[in-house]
Amino acid sequence: MRATATFLSITELLDIVFSFVPQDSLRRIVMLVCRKWFFLNRHRVSRQLSWDYKWFAEDATKALTRLPGAGRLIWRCDRYCENTWSKLVKSLNDIEKRDSMPSLTSIWRWSHNAARGDNDSKDSHSSNKYQFRIYSPLQHVELFSNYHLSSESLNLLAFPSTLTTLKIHRYSNTSLDIARILAICPHLEVLHTGSRDLLTLQGAWMSREPAPGPDLLPLRSLVLENVKLSQSWLEGLVSRTPQLKELKLINLTSPSGTTWDWSSLFLHLRSQPFALHKFHYSVHRDIPSEDDLDDMLYALCPNGLERTLWGYNLTPGIVRSLTEQPSVLTTLDVLWHHLMLCQSDGWKEGDHFYSSTSLHRLLCESPALRHLKTLKAPYLIEHMDIHRRVRVVYDSMFPESVEGREAPIFHPGVWVCRNLQVLHLQVHSHGGYDLRGIHDRQVLLGYLSRTLFSYISKVTPQLRDLHIEEPYCCSIFPGGFSFRTHLSEYLFGGLSLLSSLRYLERLRVEFNDISCDISQLSWIYSAGRTWQDKSARRAFMSKWEGQLEHEAQMEATRLQSTPVMPLSGICLDVDLQEDLGSTGLLQEVKTRLEAIDKGECECFPSLQKLSLSRELERSPERSMGSIFPMLPTKKSIWSMFRS
Ligand SMILES: *[C@@H]1O[C@H](CO)[C@@H](O)[C@H](O)[C@H]1NC(C)=O
Ligand SMILES: *[C@@H]1O[C@H](CO)[C@@H](O)[C@H](O)[C@H]1NC(C)=O
Ligand SMILES: *[C@@H]1O[C@H](CO)[C@@H](O)[C@H](O)[C@H]1NC(C)=O
């Protein structure tokens, strides 16, 4: 080593090199190399503590022992965990009081000394205490809660002054003293808060005049959803946030006696020193004129790469402007209401109707969407059914049309945004299928579910983050049966088709209820590919013979008829076209699963976080462990570094 000294032996150089390495690689690779590399990087990574009420309430106390020194806290409490709030409140209070907590610079100094092998007698005692812990100030807090956390206790939570990001999502009516938060967290840069129901923003500062002068806030991103607040208060706030880049005011309600006025807000925002990159503004029960809508979208940030709008705002004029705008659109966030009603070609919410087709055509035909990296929207699986297999299967089951129930016609297409990295869809099926008989239902659901997973895996191969959810209920027949679950977690549902997404790091699919046995999901992670599970899967697939044969016959018939070209604004390359040929087929799933089990293909090579059942995501092993609690938990080597 001495003879061939490389930069690896020069601590200062190494340190510079490591400063360019992403946190995740530091955590998973670099820090495991040796003691020196561990100490050199410890200050760069932070620990995350996440806790979900679905993971055994008695564990909350234990989890909270890891709060001191965690950089991020994500806490989700819904029902059955009222008593955990008081524990959280206490732990947060303790952090704030703990003055023995080492400062970031002293940790950094110990780390450096330890990495060099120095023995500083003054520090050695304390360095032992923290030697192998990843310690950072709490900077990021996300809380999800419903009514069990009263407004009073919410407004007493002691958020540490080190906080830079705070996100609070409520499911119920509540009020939040936002002024207090801004006062106790002077470094806050990101504040997102909202409620499913209505969140009233209140607090002493609301009524107080904002102090003039240097009393500026470092806020860069402010997102308020379903909140009640007055325009004058908001205007006072943004006058003090010169660095604001993102401002989203979603579905505002005004306190009695006041109203929101777009033109004066517009003038106010325009007179501010900041240049917004992301902006949204909508007021409950207020339908903006097309001109105002245009202003809301383009006037404040004309070159914005990101657009957020309600589904019902996708009017022909807006669709045209999105298509024709000169700048590159990288993010499209189409908002939806959690209680919208399904109609054959779209949704209805109050007086608003919106068609699923305008977004669909935009995605398939507009070259302006080619550079899209992030898409969030409600969407119909029928639009992905390139070969109309679901329809054909349904018609073969029920040759007679059901009286009074018209089956809508869709024109499936291929998205132009082939480089999408983040995709969050609320998926619906409005094909008008009447489902009787358990077996037929399963066959049809299988086709729907496979169509979705197969389409995504082929059309958007660059995905990093995929989140699929289903609506609470979805039926296009008023008063009819409720047809809710389209997606199946069973082998035949085709989740395995997603495993070819080689860059996928986060996968969240909100299956309604997981009732299959473990072998139908354990192909996901390597420890689950035991010979017992593989043979169980083979046994399941051997029962598919009949359906596979039927499928082959239908394919033969289809190939004889004239193909219907999918909608597309780009020339489909031959490979993709051929690939899409098998979308929805059971045979495709069988082939994929066999290849996974034989080790012939990679299966989710980059996956780090998984959630399949409406809970916070965790490592694939732990997430499977919470679905199937009998699973022995195998600790991976780096489990000590993560939550
Ligand atoms: C560090 O201190 C310990 C005891 O305090 C001693 O045994 C060791 O030799 C010292 N190491 C160096 C590099 O000075
Ligand atoms: C929430 O508050 C609003 C207005 O204050 C009220 O109309 C609504 O009924 C409340 N909802 C619940 C569930 O309490
Ligand atoms: C908007 O907020 C109101 C409460 O003020 C709520 O009743 C309504 O459902 C919200 N609408 C949407 C689309 O979220």
Automatic annotation (TrEMBL):
Signal peptide feature range: 1-19
Keyword Signal listed: yes
Gene3D superfamilies (alphabetical): 1.20.1280.50, Ribonuclease Inhibitor
InterPro entries per record: LRR_dom_sf
Keywords associated with the record: Signal
Protein name: F-box domain-containing protein
Organism of this sequence: Linnemannia gamsii
